[in-house]
Each structure stands twice: as structure tokens, then as C-alpha cells.
Amino acid sequence: MNSELARAFENIADLLQITGADTFRVNSYRRVSRTIRDLADDVRTLHEAGVLQEVKGIGKGTAGKIEEFLETGRIALLDELSKEVPAGLPRLLEIPGLGPKTIALIHSALKVSSISDLKQAIASGSLAELPGLGAQSVKKIADGIAFLEASKGRTPRGIAWAVAENYLTQLRSLPDVERVEIAGSLRRGLETIGDVDLLCISDAGAEVVRRFTTHPGVKRVLAAGPTKGSIVVDLEGGAELQVDLRVVPAASFGATWQYFTGSKEHNVRLRERAGQRGWKLNEWGLHDGDEMLAGATEEEIYARLDLPCMPPEVREDREEFAAGAAFDDLVSAADIRGDLHTHTTASDGKNSIEEMAAAARALGYKYLAITDHSRSSTIANGLSLERMREHIAAIRAANARLKGFTLLVGCECDILPNGDLDYPDELLAECDWVVASIHAAMGKGGRGKLSPTERTLKAIANRYVCVIGHPTGRLINRREAMELDMPRIVAAAHDTGTALEVNASWQRLDLKDLHVRQAIQAGVRLCIDTDAHRTTQLAAITHGVATARRGWARRGDVLNTLPLKDLKAWVARKRRG
DNA sequence: GCCGTTTTCGGCCCGACTGTTTTCAGTCG
Question: Which of A325, A206, A318, A301 is nearest to A252 (CA)?
């Protein structure tokens, strides 16, 4: 219900924008849309409790429209706007470089109402003849269409991260470059990225930008000036990704880093706060008239505004400005003492038990759970009862050869379509650690089959199950999450003391940030695990940590920050029930 | 459309860049 309503308000905002409505009114609808999407509770619940208008950003007008939607399934304003504006027009807003004013112009002057119409108008030359548009603008729009069609939406963070690291390394090797950092949504830990933002301190801006834009991997150069360079690179599968570089003086680095890290909504709040004190905040610093109050570091900017220094992952204008919000003990990668979901060659992994253990040790871990697939995951070479018993012995033997590091015997046990676990309790009892996951039959259930929610609840009720692996089953940009009743699952996890996983694989990031927040607010423990199928994937823990931090997870919320002794005590308590 | 320790009207974040202009509008982050 929430996401449906959020989409409706987003549509209203798009349509209003094209019809030339007041920007502030448009922004109100966008804000309401985002607020509803982020809501932990169902809007219907809030409506029935009569507290809808207590939510910040929802006023009399939008509350009325929510009510209208709940009662009739429609919103009259949206219906009217949809009649007025051709269906293909809002899609044009997605074209970079093309905004509402130009869209309104080309629609009224040329009857353009879709991307294909627009392409024709470009080809025929009629677009270039419109007032205010010239050859350059038309080229920019044509490039924007090409980019939109190639980029296929947002880039998963794992892919964007690799691109960013490549350019970081290149830039850091240049002379006259003092510092280079990642900004933007990548720094904030988002699961998908629009473009990569890089920031550097240097006195030789033009030369740095020249080296950046002439790097062998560059496909197109969008801009190249003394302080800014912008390029497009190719990704696998024909997709493209934009990378922006900005060069700034050291005195402004903190302000610019803060500014280009965003989010936009967070920055708006921050500048409002500066304004309330009679100051001005921009990308160059925090100013009182001509006097610069802060700018070299982010810490001093937040401090001058009487705020805790906010970790990038919480800068979303959710509740981080609320009084008393503190972020000192958010979980960090350095807190993680072991990985509790990994695979070996015994099932579908690429490395041996010993190799995985060595790689985990190299990361500074104290323990590692080997959790290969259970018998029903035939496609993943799941282990039969007999093979699992041999595997248990092999893990124990490997562990006996290790000093100062512990291998835990585990399994990733399938949750079957009827909600039963794939191994009998006697075998689960022989394991130190049990991950239970759904891998097949992820549809709705029905015809006597259990729903994913009911299957998960049944698994949670088993005392040997320590954690539910990748609970929603989504694959970013490839497979939708299962339809789960998350409040029920979170409540059951809390009641039974079962943990929920934050799967750190960048294809999954499951639980996602908002679910993390729901879970920890209910007092549920998390495990941040990589689900590594090879040694190199263990390092991806950072993506899971970022996701957990976006959900405001503290060190104490995450089981695998515990020393081994405490972790084992936790398992023992869970088994006693 | 939302909001209020300048509170029911009149604000609502800010600057850079670009391309088309001859003083500025549109777009972006």
C-alpha cells in the first residue's frame, strides 16, 4: 500500500512539474512520496489511528488525498492531471539535461509526447529551431537520451565502487594531488548509484582534470574545466556510468565534501539550520557575512551547527536532525570479528576450507562459519546427509590445525516450500551455527503451499536456526523481493531470539537499510555476512556494514561483533529457548 | 502543499554551469 501511494504522489509531482506548477508545491508532493516510502508502518494503520498529519511533511491536503486513495483507490487530482498530460511525457524528465520547462515547450510547440517523438524532432532539425534551443542544447539532449538508454537505470554499488577505486588509484598517483575522496551516494552507502562523485585537493586543477579525462577507460568527455571534469565509462553489458571529478582548495575541502556527499534533502535541512542562525552554508564553507566559520573539515561544520558529526550513511533527512540523535557507536567494519555465512568447494564455493580460513584471518577476523548448502539445493551442489557428516568432520579437523582462530561448523539450510528445514534437527544440533534461507519456490504460495512469510516464520520457530539468510531474496536490478510481512517476521525474530541477516553481497544487500531500521527498533539482532563463494568476496563485508549503518545499526545490534565466547553463549541461549 | 520560539501569511537552500542570451533562464547536484 505504501509503495503504491508513494508512486501515485511521485506521479502527481512529475505531472505538476510539467504543467508548470509552483516548484514548492511540486517538492511537497515529492517529499510526501519519499516520506510514505520510508514509513515503517502501513499508511492505513496511521490513518485509522488518526495520526497521519502528525507525520512531518504530511499536511491537510495530502492527508485528504491519502484518505481518498484508501477509500476509493484513486486520487482525483492524479486522474485529472493524467488526462491533461500525455502518458509518455513524464518519462522525458529522466533524460539528463532536459527539464520541465523545455519539456513543456517541446510538447506545446512540436506535439512531442514520447522519447521516440523527441528523437524524430531531433532528426528533423525542428527541435533546434525552437526559441532558446540551439545546436549545443540539441546535442546535449541527444546525448542524454543515449545515456538513458544505455545506463538501464542505476548501477549496483559493487560495480560503481570498482570504477571509483580505479580512478582513485589513478588520481592519487598524480603529482600535485594532495588528497582524493569518494563523495555522493556511493559514500552514503546506497545500494545503487546514479553517478560516481570524486573530490580532490590540488593546486593544479586543470592538469588533474586533463589527466582524468584522457584516462584510457574514458568513453566520452562531458565537461573538462579548471575545477571540474565529467566523463562516461563503459560497463559490462553495454551499460554506461558517469564519473565526476571536482578539484577544490584545502580550506574548503570539508564543506565541498559535505556538499557533494548529500543527500540533497539532508543538505537543505543543514542550510536551513545555518540560515536560522543568520549564517550561510554553501560548498565553500559556513559563513557569517564575510567571515568563514568553518570549511576545512566536515566535523567543524556540524559542530558549529550544534550537531553530532553525522556519518555519511545517515544523511538522508530521515530523523538524523532529531534532538538526541547520536551516531558514535554505529557499527563499523573494524568491529566485525568474523563472517558467519560462507561457502567452500564442498558445495558451490571456489575455495577450500583452509583457503577461506586463511583469507578470513588476513582480514583480522577471529572466527569464520563455514555454511555450505543443504541437500535440496541441488543446483548449488548441496550436501546430502552423508556428505554433510563428512564435511563436519573436515571442518573440525581443519579447525584443530589452527591456532588463535576458530572455524565454526555451519550450514545454510534450505527452508523448503512447506516451511520444513532441509536437514533434520539431529544434524542441525551437530552444527555450531545454522543459517536458514529460502532459495526456491519464492512465489506467493497458495494452493496448499505456504507463503514466504509463513515459511520464514516456521524456520524462525526452530531453536537450531540462528539467523535467516538474505530474508527477502531480492537480487538488485534482477529479481524482486519476496512479498513478506516484515512486521510479523521482525516480531517473531524478536520473540524467539533469532537473528536476521544483512547479506553484504552487493547483488543482494538483504535486509536493506529500511528493514534494518525496522528490525533494530524491534530489538532484533543482526548478522552482517558476505555469503562469500570465494576468498576475495570476504572483503565485500564493507557493503553490508554500509547498509547496516544506513539503518542506524549500532555495534551492539550486530552479533558478529561479539567475541567468540559471547557468540557461543548467545547460540546456547537460543537453543535452550 | 507545508509550516510556525519572527506562527495562519509569506516564506520555502544555494551556487555553478551552460547555452542562449545582450541580462538571463533552465538544469543540476
Answer: A301
Asked if residue A101 keeps its beta carbon closer than 7 A to nucleic acid strand B, the reply is yes
Indicate the length of chain A as a whole number: 577
Look up the CATH number of domain A253-314: 3.30.210.10
Which residue do the cell numbers 575522496 mark? A181
User: Quick check: A78 and A69 in contact, CB under 8 A?
Assistant: no
Smallest CA–C1' separation from A270, nucleotide? B13
Q: Domain ranges for chain A, please list them.
A: 1-85, 97-151, 155-248, 253-314, 333-576
CATH dotted code for A155-248? 3.30.460.10
How far apart (Å, rounded) are the C-alpha atoms in residues A170 and A211? 9
One-letter amino acid at A391 equals H
Class of domain A97-151: mainly alpha
What's the pLDDT tens digit per position in A199-255? 999 888 888 888 898 888 888 888 888 888 888 888 877 788 889 999 888 888 999
CATH topology of domain A333-576: TIM Barrel (3.20.20)
**Measuring CA to CA, which residue among A571, A568, A572, A573 is closest to residue A366?**
A568
Maximum alpha-carbon separation in chain A: 78
Give chain A residues 134-193 with Cβ within 7 A of strand B. 134-138, 140, 144, 184
CA dist., res. A290 & res. A77, Å (int): 47
Contact A102, A133 (CB under 8 A): yes
8 Å CB contact between A323 and A278: no
pTM of the model: 0.85
Q: Which of the listed CATH numbers 1.20.1300.10, 3.40.50.1580, 1.10.150.110, 3.30.470.20 matches domain A1-85?
A: 1.10.150.110
The 10s digit of each residue's pLDDT in A318-364 is 888 887 888 999 999 999 999 999 999 999 999 999 999 999 999 99
- Chain A 283-302 residues in 7 Å CB range of strand B: 283-284
**The two domains A1-85 and A97-151 share their CATH topology (first three levels equal):** yes
